[in-house]
Amino acid sequence: MATSPKLIAAAGGCLLALYVGYIVVDRIHVSTALAAETRENALPDVAVVKPIQSPKKVALTLPGNIDAWYQAPIYPQVSGYVKMWYKDYGARVKQGDVLAEINAPALDAQYAQAKADLASIMAKYNLSNVTLQRWQAMGRSQSVSGQSVSVAQADQQSAKAQVEAAERNVAHFEALERFKTIVAPFDGIVTSRDINVGDYVHDGGGNLNAAGAASELFTVADVHKLRLFVSVPEVFQYVLKPDITAEVTVPQFKDRKFTANFLTTARGYDPNTRTSTTEFEMDNPNEVLWPGTFASVELKANNENAHLYEVPTSALVFQEKGMQLAVVRDDNTVHFQNVTVGRMADTATEIQAGIGPNDRVIANPPADVLEGDKVNVTVPQRGYNQSGFGKENE
Question: Percentages helix, strand, coil for the chain, rounded to the nearest 5?
Fold first, then answer.
């Protein structure tokens, strides 16, 4: 039975209509998906964190400098040439041990002159005594006037005063003569020797260096105990309590920790650094630590603001209205919330008021985000939390 041409044409028309319809529907679907993707891509991606409660304990690591318990730079008190030095770097000395001797010919000559002057004045004084006795004897016999006796007595008193002055002068040079011998002021270690035999030194200073300034002859340090100096920022003043201890590490003993006890603080801040010099004391068993050592100092204390919440420091927004945080509402729109900021650190900042534990805070707000803008909240892959803030936020 032959197929009718009209039937064939109708079937072809139906197929064509179905094909055209499929193409139209497919294009509409693609267009709709593209529009949805475009709208989604138009929203900025943001990562959010929730505020976390401040820890009950606060730990602070600061650089410090270890110094000797006592340390004395030693300068000469006389001018001359170094005759000999007896103690070198690292020598252990006792109080009074001789460190060096100085030849001082000019001082020796002045000392000899002072003694000669004393002898001369003493002879005149002795003569004035004899003269006064003679005048007093003649005065008792009325052989001379009372005025003459008074003059002789005044001459004797003047001679006596000259003797006392000459004796003081001799004592002065005797003291300087003793300074020709340089001695250790206390038990300790010689940490510096800046003289050699034949060097010229002058009173009040050591050798003249290249810049023309005087340097010390020796430095002696008592290292049975040590002092640790740390510059503590003013925002962490509350950490400084009389019973606080510091855990100290030094580069030369990486696997060893030392303990330092709080001694005192300057009770004032350096206006340039906003820090207060704080002093700790350390025992130094076997004198393993040396003065001048750099130290890493860890301080731990109870956090008085443990009731507050912390957010990443990168989340803070500085506006003319004050400090703000960009908070994402339930409908994924942005609201800039005014907050009161407490202590600030590199990674986290305490918020005293303005947010709660359930707020979603943008960790690093884009510069072009405005109030009421809609955003796309993204969740970073575990281990890629760029805010570095709180494991619970990953």
Answer: 30, 35, 30
**Strand pairing report for 376-378 and 45-49:** parallel
E strand or H helix at 10: helix 5-42
And the tokens for 215? 């340097």
Do the Cβ atoms of 282 and 259 come closer than 8 Å?
yes
User: In angstroms, rounded to a whole number, what is the distance separating the alpha carbons of residues 37 and 30?
Assistant: 10
Q: Which of 359, 360, 353 is nearest to 339 (CA)?
A: 353
CB distance 229 to 292 below 8 Å:
no
- Whether residue 263 contacts residue 323, with contact meaning beta carbons closer than 8 Å, is answered with no
Structure tokens at 199: 């060097």
Beta partners for 344? 349
pTM given for the model = 0.62
Place of tokens 């209509």: 17
Cα gap 326→50, rounded to integer Å: 12
Concatenated DSSP letters of 53-77: EPPSEEEEEEEEEEEEEEEEEE--S
How far apart are the C-alpha atoms of 307 and 23, rounded to whole Å? 63
For the chain, 394 residues long, give each residue's pLDDT as a single digit of tens.
455 676 777 776 777 777 667 777 767 766 666 555 555 556 788 888 888 877 777 778 899 999 999 999 998 889 899 999 999 999 999 999 999 999 999 999 999 999 999 999 999 888 888 888 877 788 777 777 778 778 888 888 888 899 999 999 999 999 999 999 999 999 999 999 998 999 888 886 655 554 444 568 999 999 999 999 999 988 788 788 888 889 999 999 988 999 999 999 998 999 999 899 999 999 998 899 999 999 999 988 776 666 677 888 888 888 777 888 888 888 888 888 888 887 777 788 888 888 888 888 888 888 888 888 888 888 765 554 545 565 544 4
- Judging by beta carbons within 10 Å of its beta carbon (0-12, 13-18, 19+), is residue 348 exposed, middle or buried? buried
